[in-house]
Amino acid sequence: MQISCDINGKAYTRHIEPDLVLIDFLRDLGFLSLKQGCDTTNCGLCTVWVDGTPRLSCAMLAAGIQGRQITTIEGVEKEAAAFGQFLAAQGADQCGFCSPGFIMNVLAMERELTDPSDDQIKHYLAGNLCRCTGYAGQMRAITLYLGARKGELSCE
Amino acid sequence: MRIVNTAVPKVDAMALVTGKPVYTDDLAPKNCLIVKLLRSPHAFAKICDMDTAVAAQMPGIACVITHRDVPRHRFTMAGQSYPEPSPYDRLILDQIVRYVGDPVAIVAGTTEKEVEKAMREITVSYEVFEPVLDPEKALDHPSVIHPEKDWHVNFDIGSQVERNLCCSGGFESGDTGAEFSASDVIVDEVYHVKANSQAMMETFRTYTYLDHNNRLTIVTSTQIPFHIRQIAARALGIPKQNIRVIKPRIGAGFGAKQTLISELFPAIVTLTTGKPAKIVFDRTESFIGSTSRHEMIIRVKVGADKEGKLLAIHLHTLSNTGAYGEHAPTTVGLSGHKTLPLYNKAKACKFSYQVVYTNTMSAGAFRGYGATQGTFALESAMNELAAKLGMDPLTLRLKNLLEEGEILTAYHGEKLNSCALEACIQKGREMIGWEKKFPCVRISDTKVRAVGAAITMQGSSIPNIDMAAVEVRLQDDAYYTLMIGATDMGTGCDTILAQIAAECLECELDKIIVSGVDTDHSPYDTGSYASSTTFLTGMAVVKACERLKGKIIRAAGLRLKTDPAALAFDGRAIFNDNEKDDEKNRINLDDLAKSLVVGAGHCLSATASHSSPVSPPPFMAGFVEIEMDLETGKTHVIDYVGVVDCGTPINPNLARLQTEGGIVQGIGMALFEDITYGKTGKMMNNSFMQYKIPSRLDLGEIRVAFQSSYEPAGPFGAKSIGEVVINTPAPAIAHAITNACGIHLRTLPMTAENILMKIREKQ
Ligand code: FES
Ligand code: FES
Hints:
- Chain A is of the alpha+beta class and 156 residues long.
- Chain A has helices spanning 22-28, 77-90, 99-112, 118-124, 136-155, and strands at 2-7, 10-15, 47-50, 53-56, 69-71.
- Chain A has a five-stranded mixed β-sheet, with helices on one face.
- The termini of chain A are far apart.
- Chain B has 763 residues and is α+β, with helices and mostly antiparallel strands.
- Chain B has a seven-stranded mixed β-sheet with strand order 3-5-1-12-9-10-11, with helices on both faces. In chain B, strands 7-15-14-13-8 form a five-stranded mixed β-sheet, with helices on both faces.
- Chain B is globular, with a radius of gyration of 27 Å.
- Chains A and B meet through helix 2, helix 3 and helix 5 of A and helix 1, helix 17 and strand 29 of B.
- One FE2/S2 (inorganic) cluster binds at residues 36-38, 41-46, 56, 58 of chain A.
- One FE2/S2 (inorganic) cluster (FES) sits between chains A (94-98, 130-133) and B (201, 252, 490).
């Protein structure tokens, strides 16, 4: 079958098998930031945005994105780097394999929630597993990042 | 110190946080054959007949490989220095399958779908045997798991393979029998640590190809590139010089990747077909077809006098190595050698062990490597002893604690040169608020908060066996390349080693380019395991940099036509040490470096190797506060305090993150991680659905502090940190549970269900 969609602001039209999973479709196109950590939709490593909403690309068929907008971390590199600097400053990017999915979800959370509490943050990101960091360093990075962003806004 | 002991970001950070394609599967060529494994449905069986003819003829299929097609040299997949202590009990594919999931056939083809279709067309008939599933019944079981005549050990490890005994041994110091008789109080209990999965986020994956000289190149997510070269050469029956191993960035390992797992399958496909080949394990395969932590059943007997002075300790470990003996003799050793020294003052101690084969997945290396299991047992017993003595458990520790300057009897007679464990205990006691909270505080009719504690040690490298070499080169723009064979697996060793080099060469961190592992280019390193990288490779960096500095000064002497003995180097320039303003005898490093690559120049490079006669232990004291619901048994860790003595932390941020990550893995092990097998030997927890690892909702606060001693044998006083940090949660949480409701949990994991059952039993 044929599908057309928008990935990171560029139009793509491709012939695909109807059972092709979205993560494989995107990796085949060269969006290699996407990682797969499980076969049971438990890890969150494969998170992308579909029409601006975070979704698990391992749990969606490519056929389902006909006419929709996909965003991967390659498409928001500047924002990812801005938050990534806070992660790096904590040393909270260990093996980094969970980072792309995690960061996509953090950036989505930033758009969706205003002034989230620690509890809200934890719940929003509950589906993003990380085996290396123990999460505490990620939390420090998020708190500092959101604080800095707020500082910027109030300065304007 | 300018750069050492500062929290610089990791050198690869920006690539990782922007999702750059730096991992094995991101780099694999698109035309790789896809390799998949047909696995055994039986725990113990012999393959009688196998029909692969139909599958081999199917569209897209490049080859089907069975036990008839593989070389017959037995080997171990354990990544250890040669001659490996682990027995040679494996073939790439064997006619006997020994666990559910043992590979039976290797199938390679153009697409995943074609390969999967072909796999369904392979028919195998088995003669099925009764499997050995219970380690306590393995010895002298009628089923002999390794009946083969060519089973081999490189040296005597106390094996009786016909009895399913993989290895055994022990030692005694002092007269434990007499000391137990003299003891006023004795604790004698059995503790059971289950198999766990390392569960790093990047599953096992490898791709292979033949280069222009027909040499086999193996690109793989591993902690042990050089051991892979050695083991692959033996297993495939080709010379080492025809193999090159490359390690890209890796998505963590925790010991799982200290064993060959996925490497040999695409390698044999590439050798058979001449084509590039790739295998990527899915999560299920990663669970069922790799290695786990060794399940250990540990009997601990401790005796003390009325004042709490320890008189005797006896630890007996029964370890389950599963179907194959990867890391079997070494992990079990740590259950005693890295626990007993803590109580070096005890008058007598004894350690004995047996490691048995069973028809479950092979056990292997997992962060902590046996010390974790031993710590749960011995620290739990110490807490029980304190309760029996009516003594504060921290007081019991402080009374018997090892001290700097002692000769550690149970630690191969090594002298302890750095230890701040007492300070760790005092600091942690304050941080958790022990005085107010021990043993527990009732907060409602059904809820209670309680505290618990444990201490631990590990080592830093394997003494006299691990070897690390590095090379540092001066480049013509006055920057340096640091070639290392140690593998950064997310732990940050590329950064830490660059920090050490920048400190020694007195330059900025960005002047050091670290070049990761390629066995054709990197100097030899045993690999990243046994908590060796910072300590061992770090010391090699110090040596190499000192050598390079000497060469730089000598080269400047030649240029300046001056006696190098009078010159000094400050990172930027070489100058007259006695006469700083002597412009005639001064040359910038930049100018020198440029001049060295022109005409009759001289490329400056220094190599150094390091191995250590000692393995200085890092220490940690762990304290936990839990909240328990007495009606449901539900236990939540609300606060965990870890105070660590890792010597000088080269990068305090990375050390902190190692500690936080290790504590959380330890909490998972304590509360819910558990590999279990069904009646026929099938692993029941083969996904993150059934094998739960901690999510951010499972955790309360994690607080880390450092109490640094200075280790003279380490670079800038550093010891290791990677493993010691996983050891305390299980015993500390078990202790807190006892303090909350009076029950003793001696089997892991301590799930709400198990807690509740014990509470009911007690009532
Ligand atoms: S890969 Fe694990 S949730 Fe998608
Ligand atoms: S950093 Fe390794 S899994 Fe998160």
